[in-house]
Amino acid sequence: MTDRGSSEKTEFLLEIETAWTALQAALAGFSDSEMTGPQDQEGWTVKDHLTHITAWEASVISFLQGRPRHEGLGVDESVYSNSSFDDINAVIQRQRMELPLDQATAQLQATHRRLMDLLEPLTDADLALPLRAFLPSSPADDRRRAIDIVRDNTSAHFSEHLAWIEALGQKNEPD
Description:
The protein has eleven helices and no strands. The protein is mainly alpha-helical. 27% of the residues are buried.
């Protein structure tokens, strides 16, 4: 089994905060037009990456509240259950494409705060619980723990998108 990072809550929260701070620092270097203009090879702008991150963090909020993750993502259950991540992400992008940048960034901040508030009362033991402890309708063979779901949609996700966002920033630099 690969090491997915510390299961100690304090270290885990620091991991999230470190990745979040790095993401926020990168975003601070973009103008509004740089966040909504240039597109990566998938056709995503910086704003698209932000709305995507927001949606997946919202899916974790749903998970922690015992609600299906598709509700937090804002996609139909059939899309969530029967589609690839790429297809789900395309739906998320299309749904939020017209969202003004100021609303997208406000939603990102509010969703992140809400998720961190939900994580605060959880213990190490809570975070070590299997997926089914929070979402009983999950497949019985899904052996992921709560901490895995949260990490995959916070610190690991921020770092993944940070690389793509930084690449978009390099497109903005004069040659």
